[in-house]
Amino acid sequence: MELIYPASNTLQRALLRLFADWQVMGRENVPPMGPLVIVCNHLSNLDASLLGASLPSRRIRFLAKSGLFTASAVGGWFLRSYGAFPLNREGVDVRAYRWALNELATDGALVLFP
What we know:
Blueprint: H1 4-19, E1 36-39, H2 47-54, E2 60-65, H3 67-70, H4 73-82, E3 84-87, H5 94-105, E4 109-112
Parallel strand pairs: 1-4, 2-3, 2-4
Helix pairs in contact: 1-2
């Protein structure tokens, strides 16, 4: 399972270099260690994977709406393997909150899409 994240990001970086005018500016400002919260506008379903490909020095984790995990078994497996955790947006999701706090307590990089 640990191969999904690096393999996906390596493939995406290769495709972006081949087919897009892809540039990452300010990468030197991202701390290589320690807890990190990344706040990003959510413009498309590619946002999380573009962040992962753009920040190769950090393994990012993120919350995703729980419906994405139940839409298909393969999709849910892939999202979990990639670093996503299901978030119930219908109310207060204590499990997701605890998961996010644990990620930060263990020096993780957590992406939030407000």
